[in-house]
Write a structure and sequence with these properties.
The complex is a heterodimer. By secondary structure, chain A is an all-alpha fold. Helices cover about 80% and strands about 0% of the residues of chain A. In chain A, helix 1 packs across helix 8 and helix 2 packs across helix 4. Classes of the chains: A mainly alpha, B alpha/beta. The complex binds adenosine-5'-diphosphate and magnesium ion (MG). Magnesium ion binds next to helix 1 of chain B.
Chain lengths: ~220, ~240
């Protein structure tokens, strides 16, 4: 079987792959920064004293989490132009990934914050620390330690989800595999190469996750 | 120093503080006891407005705690609060725990706060544990760090909510000893506790609560030997059989 595997064609397509790999990386990176920002805001809103603010954020989070990313992507790609809003494909793709992962990040951050026992917050209140000081010095340092793993997990999901952007004809890793397949009828070579590149990103994020677990999670007993 | 005048508080339908009147003078030590659920925690939590009151007047160090417009930050800085479950910050060392509020609330310089923190830890017998994390300390040690955390703010008042009831018996005395020292140095203290030895040694008065009301206020000797109310008699007979 390996004799029929065409390494030469992979080499030939390598410049295209590298270009598409770069695209996947920057699309994911921009979406990740966006998603973290959206997640922080949505989480703050979700935990707000105001019922309405909390409810708005709740509706956003629930509607994202209950529908497929592909449907959300198509909504932005086909739906927005029909409403008269025309965006470049890359912007549409980043928007969909950002809003999608943002909802998951909101929930991850919320779980981290709510895992901090309320007694510690009361101790902070009793000593005169204000809301932002309590967040900054008591809640967030611990929540970060608790959430770093699920956060990186969601980053891995986001990178893999960016493959869906190939469906709105953005040039990225999965699209490179599709091109090799349709140009040369070599789906095995095309998609295995694509998979290898995703594996690289996955491995890097996973290593960061393992490293951060040792560094960031504060000392438990002993 | 602390003055409750006709204070009422409800949790929904539950009348948790029922017409409370209580004056605590500067330097006085008051012990509060009573059955579980009688409102003891709520009573002292109102003093730094961890719980707001709904009716009456509550004046602490000449400031109106009952007035929603009163800025609580300053009053809270003057009051140390010790919880049953310690509530230390687990991601900070003992020294970090005791210096955070002086640095952030009192705006003391870090070096100065750490010097004070170290001294205060020594005062509670934990000079060698400054670098330890809460999880590395025993319950008694954690509670003493919590007391040091309160003391580092140089408070005028210290409030204790059952400070020894989460501790193993052999650790209770190391915490009570620190509290007795504090009392003898003239700290104004309200202590929710059932430790009769402590009450007898340092308390000027015992406040007995039941169902949100203050039933009886008496000097400890008198309260423990000749309680007036039937409810206090019943309560004492229960804790004495333990
Ligand atoms: N945050 C709260 N919300 C509703 N009920 C409460 C709350 N805190 C305390 N209670 C109720 O108020 C009563 C008095 O509670 P507490 O002051 O903790 O009593 P104690 O400290 O004497 O055991 C109890 O019945 C308790 O269940
Ligand atoms: Mg209580």
């Amino acid at each position: 079987m390996l004799e029929t595997f065409n390494f030469r064609v992979i080499l030939e397509y390598m410049p295209l792959y590298l270009q598409c790999f770069t695209a996947t990386l920057w699309l994911s990176a921009v979406s990740l920064i966006g998603a973290l920002s959206v997640g922080i805001v949505a989480c703050a809103m979700r935990l707000s004293q105001s019922r309405i603010v909390s409810r708005i954020s709740g509706i956003y989070i629930e509607s994202i989490r209950s529908t497929p990313l592909l449907a959300q992507l198509y909504f932005f790609y086909f739906g927005l132009p029909s409403l008269g809003i025309r965006l470049p494909e890359a912007v549409t793709g980043i928007l969909a990934l950002t809003l999608n992962s943002g909802a998951y990040y909101a929930e991850i951050i919320r779980a981290g914050i709510q895992a901090i026992p309320y007694g510690q917050i009361e101790a902070g209140i009793a000593s005169g620390l204000n809301y932002f000081q309590r967040m900054r010095f008591i809640v967030l340092p611990q929540a970060l330690g608790l959430t770093i793993k699920p956060m990186l997990g969601q980053a891995i999901v986001l990178v893999k989800d960016s493959s869906l952007l190939s469906l709105i004809s953005i040039m990225e890793l999965t699209r490179a595999g599709q091109l090799l397949t349709s140009d040369r009828f070599m789906p095995a070579e095309g998609f295995l190469t694509t998979a290898a590149f995703y594996l690289v990103v996955y491995y890097i994020l996973k290593s960061i996750s393992g490293w951060s677990e040792k560094r960031l999670i504060f000392r438990e007993a002993h | 120093m602390i003055s409750f005048k006709n204070v009422n508080k409800w949790f929904g339908d539950l009348h948790v503080l029922n017409n409370i009147n209580l004056e605590v003078e500067k330097g006085e030590v008051v012990v509060v006891c009573g059955p579980s659920g009688s409102g003891k925690s709520t009573l002292i939590r109102c003093i730094n407005r961890l719980e707001p009151i709904q009716e009456g007047e509550l004046i602490v160090d000449d400031m109106k705690v009952h007035d929603k417009k009163t800025n609580m930050t300053q009053i809270r800085a003057e009051i140390g609060f010790i919880f049953q479950s310690f509530n230390l910050y687990p991601h900070m060392t003992a020294l970090g725990n005791v210096t955070i509020a002086p640095i952030k609330v009192r705006k003391v310089k870090k070096e100065e706060a750490e010097k004070l923190g170290q001294q205060t830890l020594e005062r509670v017998g934990l000079g060698g544990k400054a670098g330890a994390y809460p999880a590395q300390l025993s319950g008694g040690q954690q509670q003493r760090v919590a007391i040091a955390r309160g003391l580092c703010m140089r408070p005028k008042i210290m409030l204790f909510d059952e400070p020894t009831s989460a501790l193993d018996p052999e650790m209770i005395n190391e915490v009570l000893d620190v509290m007795v020292d504090l009392a003898k140095e003239g700290m104004t203290m309200i202590v929710v506790t059932h430790e009769m030895g402590f009450a007898r040694e340092v308390a000027k008065r015992v406040v007995f609560m039941d169902e949100g009301q203050i039933i009886e206020i008496a000097p400890p000797e008198k309260f423990f030997t000749k309680p007036k109310s039937d409810r206090a008699k019943l309560f004492l007979s229960k804790i004495l059989t333990h």
